[in-house]
Amino acid sequence: MHLGRKKDVARGVSSSIPKHLLPFPSEFNFEIPTTSIDLVGSKISALLQGLDLQWRYRSQISRGVGFARANVWSRAARRQRKREVAGGGELIAKSDDDDGGDNEDEGIEEAALGFKIQLATGREVVAVSIRWLQGVDCVLFESFCGMVKRQVANGI
Length: 156
Known about the structure:
Elements: H1 5-11, E1 27-32, H2 37-49, E2 54-58, E3 63-68, H3 75-86, E4 95-96, E5 113-121, E6 126-134, H4 138-155
Parallel strand pairs: 2-4
Antiparallel strand pairs: 1-6, 2-3, 3-5, 5-6
Helix pairs in contact: 2-4
């Protein structure tokens, strides 16, 4: 199943227009070779809950929404976080479970990246779609998508 049809309409123009003139894609799609949507969803949720960002995943609809204030998934950010925790700094988890309320709105306004992850099953694959909801840094979005794809594909 292909989830990027909307993106294809916007960017699927003739080859006469150079790609660098088109806006950066706001959606990233990839497929995982498994039939278990629950396995992929739990892997993504566990990955994002381990990071310092707001994340809510609803397994009933196979969709999650998250917000990050900065690049918290890079190696440098993870090392810095580890030093802060080891140095006695407080680390506040900003994750939510399936039954959570809507009181997590503080901090969303200053988020550098907002994203939505949607899962869908296809023939022998689970299609993952990451949609860019908030932020202006396309490199940050591209980095996040690459990290999610790499971590999920390696773990399954």
